[in-house]
Design a protein that fits this description.
heterodimer, A: about 375 residues, mainly alpha, MetI-like fold, 2 domains, 15 helices, about 75% helix, B: alpha/beta, six-stranded mixed β-sheet, three-stranded antiparallel β-sheet, disordered N terminus
């Protein structure tokens, strides 16, 4: 990729700058805290300069760095300028925002094409590219909701959600403790463990395999919305009823995947164990379970997200006055959407961390599998 | 050696026999009806022999090996291994088996793959280590103990699987086309090593192949088989000396035996037409 050539993103950004200049000012006349001319000039200058400088650079990394500074500096100035003037933005504001976004796009495009030698640089790039990507979702969200004055109820800006998270840490912490550390973790561990144990039993005892698995498939189709209230009746309002829902949700993916995994070892390998006069349990632990590990980890990953959904939805059907699902259902009724978004953000973060931990353990455990080591079978 | 009275073998005539098959037959029940895989096989394999089984695919040579190993059960006739039934022999771990593919476990290092049967038997750790070291040395894999199977070439993987069968230290080694998937050069090399190994360890080897030169080069006896139903059509005693350099394959003696094997294979085929 030739980074020194003028790219369409940079060219378009320059055009947008020019149009913005002719349609000034950025804010409507009645704005409470109008932006100074200096700020407007600075934004345009930053975008235009970094755009021009980016293709005069000697290396891809340098031009990406210039674009990075230009795009994020301009975005920061725009967002700083709009505070106090929510809903007052005029066309040049959005044009310049788009121009900054195009520069960031170009920056990511250059970074993606880089082929660094050192492993540290590779790791850094692997983290930097999605970080810029994610940051721009938040930047655009923030700048558009505030610039255009989107009603708070429809979509609060991320800064308001972040402020809500900052102000409500004790509440959020209590909800996380209730929902994730009690219902989800307990339900996940018990659900996965019992699915695993029943899969081994079904493997060992033929009548269970014939009888249980078809029924298992049926139970896995049970609608969670229907089961949750019944669990509340059976196990009460506390977290135990939510854990029960999580157990039901996580049991069958684990059962089905483990059964499939136990059948995954090859005939030759099993014949080999037979020639050693290996016992059932020796064959299970030395051959069949390691061969089943990729399947079992698949179930663990699927279940990590299912468990969180199950626990939150189950809390809609009666809880003590704490828990993420409880908070979402009550705060939406009180029009506190920022709190709802805060819970969503925390749930997304917790879910990602949960999934990430399982995926990390998977990579460490099934390092030998072609899909992990990136080789041939 | 001949004087030793084998207590377990009341029926065995030949005290020196490792494998004895009498009127052995095996019929598979398939969806397309019964298939006769083996029919009326009579064969005695003595201690220290290197016997090759050769024939076109479907002639039952692999099936016969699997019957010895108790991986298939015969439907007719009798077979004994060291005077025991195949089932007893398997439980007594009387043989090592080398498959067509290396069948190494990818989650284990080479040394722990070689040690797998020893772990299953439950040998003490120190003896496991000693045997792993010795057999890795025998197949020239010293220095690769900590590698994983997928980091090794196909020839090295197959050598590791032979080491695994040898670590077992049974007197009988069953090999089912162990070098079939390897290229000619690697194959020659491994054939040479296998002969050396056999002389060093004095084991009895049953070797399935579909390569005439390989069978003639390695064996003291060649069993020619033919398909539908799988049966023995000829048994050829090798007249080659025990010491066999690779270029023995150009000697007239070698070529004469190879020609006889080829005739035997052709004769087996002609019944079909």
């Amino acid at each position: 990729m030739s980074f020194s050539r003028l790219s369409w993103q940079v060219a378009l950004a320059l055009v947008l700058c020019a149009v913005a200049m002719t349609t000034m000012p950025m804010l409507a006349a009645e704005a409470a805290a109008p932006m100074s001319n200096g700020t407007s000039t600075l934004v345009i200058g930053l975008v235009a300069l970094s755009a021009v400088a980016s293709f005069a650079m000697f290396s891809g990394a340098a031009s990406a760095a210039v674009l990075f500074i230009g795009a994020h500096g301009a975005a920061w100035l725009l967002i700083a300028g709009i505070s106090g003037n929510e809903g007052m933005a005029r066309m040049p504001y959005f044009l310049l925002l788009a121009a900054a976004w195009l520069l960031a796009w170009r920056c990511v495009a250059i970074l993606s094409a880089l082929k660094p030698q050192s492993p540290q640089a590779k790791t850094f790039l692997r983290l930097l590219i999605p970080a810029i990507f994610g940051a721009w979702i938040l930047i655009l969200w923030e700048a558009v909701t505030r610039g255009a004055g989107v009603p708070f109820i429809l979509l609060p800006p991320p800064s308001a959600i972040a402020a809500r998270i900052g102000n409500s840490l004790p509440i959020l912490a209590a909800d996380v403790r209730q929902t994730i550390f009690k219902a989800v973790l307990f339900g996940y561990i018990v659900g996965c463990a019992s699915g695993f144990v029943v899969a081994i039993l079904a493997d060992r005892v033929p009548f269970l395999r014939r009888g249980l698995l078809p029924i298992g498939n049926m139970v896995s189709a049970l609608p969670i919305i229907g089961v949750a209230p019944i669990m509340v009746i059976w196990f009460g309002f506390e977290w135990q009823s939510k854990a029960a829902v999580v157990i039901i949700m996580t049991f069958f993916p684990m059962l089905v995947n483990t059964v499939a995994g136990l059948a995954a070892s090859g005939h030759m390998e099993r014949d080999l164990m037979r020639t050693y006069a290996s016992s059932y349990w020796q064959t299970l632990f030395k051959l069949r379970l390691p061969a089943a590990a990729p399947f079992i980890f698949n179930a663990l990953k699927i279940n990590s997200t299912l468990a969180l959904i199950g626990a939150i939805v189950a809390e809609f059907f009666g809880t003590p006055i704490v828990g993420m699902g409880f908070r979402i259902s009550t705060e939406i009724g009180r029009m506190n959407v920022d709190m709802v978004w805060a819970e969503i953000a925390v749930a997304a973060l917790a879910g990602s961390v949960f999934y990430g931990v399982v995926a990390f353990i998977e990579r460490a455990t099934t390092f030998w599998h072609p899909s992990v080591r990136g080789g041939r079978a | 050696m001949l004087m030793t009275v084998n207590q377990a073998t009341a029926t065995s005539v030949n005290q020196n026999a490792v494998v004895e098959a009498r009127k052995l037959g095996l019929t598979f029940q398939t969806n397309d009806g019964p298939v006769r895989a083996l029919s009326d096989v009579n064969l005695t394999i003595n201690k220290g022999e290197f016997v090759s089984f050769i024939g076109p695919s479907g002639c039952g040579k692999t099936t016969f090996l699997r019957v010895i190993a108790d991986l298939e059960q015969p439907t007719e006739g009798k077979i004994s291994i060291n005077g025991m039934t195949p089932e007893q022999a398997r439980q007594a771990r009387a043989y090592g088996y080398v498959f067509q593919a290396a069948a190494l476990f990818p989650w284990r290092t080479i040394e722990s793959n070689v040690g797998l049967p020893l772990e299953i038997i439950g040998l003490p750790k120190a003896e496991q280590q000693e045997r792993i070291k010795r057999t890795m040395d025998l197949v020239n894999l010293t220095g690769f103990e900590k590698k994983y199977p997928w980091q090794l070439s196909g020839g090295m993987q197959q050598r590791a699987s032979i080491a695994r069968a040898l670590a077992f230290d049974a007197d009988l080694l069953l090999m089912d086309e162990p070098f079939g998937a390897l290229d000619e050069i690697v194959r020659d090399h491994l054939n040479e090593q296998l002969l050396r190994l056999w002389r060093q360890t004095n084991k009895t080897i049953c070797f399935v192949t579909h390569s005439i030169p390989e069978a003639v080069y390695l064996s003291t006896r060649i069993v020619v088989m033919s398909p539908r139903p799988g049966r023995v059509t000829d048994v050829i005693e090798s007249t080659l000396p025990a010491e066999r350099p690779l270029d023995i394959r150009e000697s007239p003696e070698f070529l004469a035996i190879a020609a006889r094997v080829r005739d035997g294979l052709r004769a087996g085929h002609s019944y079909e037409d």
